[in-house]
Design a protein that fits this description.
mini-chromosome maintenance (MCM) complex, domain 2; 5-stranded antiparallel beta sheet; 4-stranded antiparallel beta sheet; 5 helices
């Protein structure tokens, strides 16, 4: 038989543990806010600015849009790379000519889903009349504390296609050939000594094959016709 004081103490601790557990579970279940955009564009400052602006607004981050855009465009002009808060944006020249396009993905939706990203749908249709001259890559990541604490020490390659996350590959293992089903056909890639490259694709422009090696977080390769995105995290 326990005393009234002991009973109240036990029930009080149990109630605290219950609600603490619920709050922790709720916190753990919060998904990381991630967004990746790869666009093939003409080297036109107005179009680049429009893409970056739509990207920033999509993240719903509290930034001064005009100041952020001016900073990013200035950095891209001088260094082809801009980093501000949790945004990482790069620009590179294309070796081959093909029509402009956009691929966009987060940690929930597929590489291109007009219902998920309506602000890019009409804009993407307009872009298709322009020849692409550059690849603009935009990353945004905001992880919760639990993600940060339990993030694996090894780098991983996320493979996404038109249906969503296709596979996740550890880069500390070698793979001679990985075949990915795309919207247009198949793409083949390899992983060797933590280096990722696309070895073959049935797309027309072969930009993905000619993109070379990637090995670091925030680097990506995209195949626009196949709607396949490879990104290192």
């Amino acid at each position: 038989m326990i005393s009234r004081r002991e009973f109240l103490k036990i029930t009080g601790l149990s109630t605290f543990a219950f609600f603490a557990g619920r709050n922790l579970a709720s916190f753990i279940n919060q998904e990381s806010n991630e967004l990746t955009l790869i666009s093939f564009l003409p080297e036109n400052e107005s179009l680049i600015k429009s893409v970056v602006e739509k990207f920033i607004k999509r993240t719903k981050v509290n930034l001064n849009i005009d100041e952020a855009l001016n900073f990013i465009i200035n950095r891209l002009t001088k260094e082809n790379l801009a980093k501000i808060d949790n945004f990482f944006i790069t620009k590179e020249k294309l070796n081959s000519q093909f029509y402009s396009d956009i691929l966009i993905s987060n940690n929930v939706y597929s590489v291109y889903n007009p219902n998920s990203f309506p602000e890019f749908f009409d804009f993407r249709q307009e872009l298709k009349s322009y020849k692409a001259e550059i690849k603009l890559t935009c990353f945004y990541t905001e992880s919760n504390l639990i993600d940060h604490l339990f993030k694996p020490s090894h780098k991983t390659l996320q493979i996404l296609n038109h249906q969503g996350l296709y596979d996740t590959i550890r880069l500390d293992k070698n793979y001679s050939t990985i075949v990915v089903n795309g919207n247009y056909g198949k793409l083949e890639l390899s992983v060797k000594d933590r280096l990722v490259r696309v070895t073959n694709s049935n797309c027309r422009n072969k930009h993905c094959v000619n993109s070379g090696l990637i090995s670091q977080p925030n680097q990506a390769i995209a195949c626009a016709p196949n709607k396949i995105l490879l990104r290192i995290v």
